[in-house]
Amino acid sequence: MNAPPALPNSWPFREAARVAERLARSGKTHALFETGYGPSGLPHIGTFMEVARTSWIRLAFSRLTGLPSTLLAFSDDMDALRKVPGNVPNQDLLRGFIGKPLTQVPDPFGTHDSFGAHNNARLRAFLDQFGFEYEFASSTDYYRGGRFNPALRTIAAHHDTIRAIIAPTLGPERRATYSPILPIHPETGVVMQVRIDHVDTAAAMVTWTDPDTSATYTTSILDGAAKLQWKADWAMRWFALDVDYEMSGKDLIDSVKLSSAIVRALDAAPPETFTYELFLDEAGQKISKSKGNGLSVEQFLAYGPPESLGQFMFAAPQRAKRLYFDVIPKATDEYIASVDALCAGRGVAEENPAWFIHGGVIPDRSGSAIPFGMLLNLASVVNAETPDLLWGFIRAYRPEASPETEPFLARLVDYAVRYYQDFVRPTKQYRPASALEAAALQDLANSLRSLPPGTDAEALQTLVYDVGKRHPFAALRDWFGCLYQVLLGQSEGPRFGGFVALYGIAPTIALIETALARDAAG
Are 58 and 69 in contact (CB under 8 A)? Predict the structure, then answer.
């Protein structure tokens, strides 16, 4: 008997295998993947990350099983407005709607029927710009349309059991009033967090008391007249829709455990879940929307292609990673290496990030013959103010290249100029060469003079290595540190031989001589 083919060794395939095993146990032939969105704020880089990563697992699931699947982008727009966001206009307009469902809050931008509808539209536009395949779902539509009614009846029947699951996690005061059911006040429209005095399971009604007026109300829990507390709501959604997979951040580990326990209490199986690590800022602090210390999608895409954002998101999702501007060049060059390997057939395609980024389709051509880091160093040396200046050097290096024949390279050139102007130029700081370094640099300049103009990058790199070995550096990395810091005014850079090939041998000699003369004059 032949052994089954080996599973590709990439995390999306490992996750997809878990979903496949779940479907095999349940007998389902269609998988439902879900991502959640809280529309009290605008879509952000975490939104992109969740949808992108879940989409890659769907792709792996399809390749692994051949079964259909759906990605449901679910918006919790029945959630109450807890505070007025600081980044919206007409904030005074919103203050009178604190506590009401987001779809009952006016749109401060004046473009949609409600604040929830506005942010839902922004979410869909945000996802559409990246070509994600998904179905959008509104909590308000599902509650009011009766889609959740059967599940809500089941929740009511297990009201005390759910309270017992959640109560140990609450403080004494909150524990005394906690209920998974939040009736919506029939007069004010506010989502009420109150003690439920009685649950009429047969009628699907709850009785409760308004703490401000002491008036007692008996209201339905169906058709949008009530909603559920967050953890119970998440569990109800998993139960009602039979969700097979959902990922979430490390900060929701306890919520996942409690929501899963609630689903089991309803005599159902919770979905397969995946916990990813959160992003950190440059200082290693957790990124927070309220602090504004993160990097937005818009900021990332101002300096790097969308493919590089996908590359950054793909790697090691269960490891905390710093997300700040300096990661963009590295992620871009990692993407170029990935797509080059994919196009050349090196390695297993389904283990290559570019295979997932391109939806399982191998591109017709590789990324760029010139690394992004190399373009940045070129821009730094020539003080590039326009893309045309870089193209002059690129054409000397590759005469056949043009923005028309190399569209991805053309995008990288534009990004490189912008990145140089905003990040490299303000921080450029040349240091003087030591006596050891000055001797090695002069040796390099003399050695370059002996080479013909068309010497390739590998031969130039070998020469650079040989020069470094001829001088008593403690380690070769000290030699390369000298090249970057003395000649380029930065702490690191690409393979120096490749830079010389792109910049030109004669200009590199002039660069060395200028640096040595600057040191002598200083």
Answer: yes
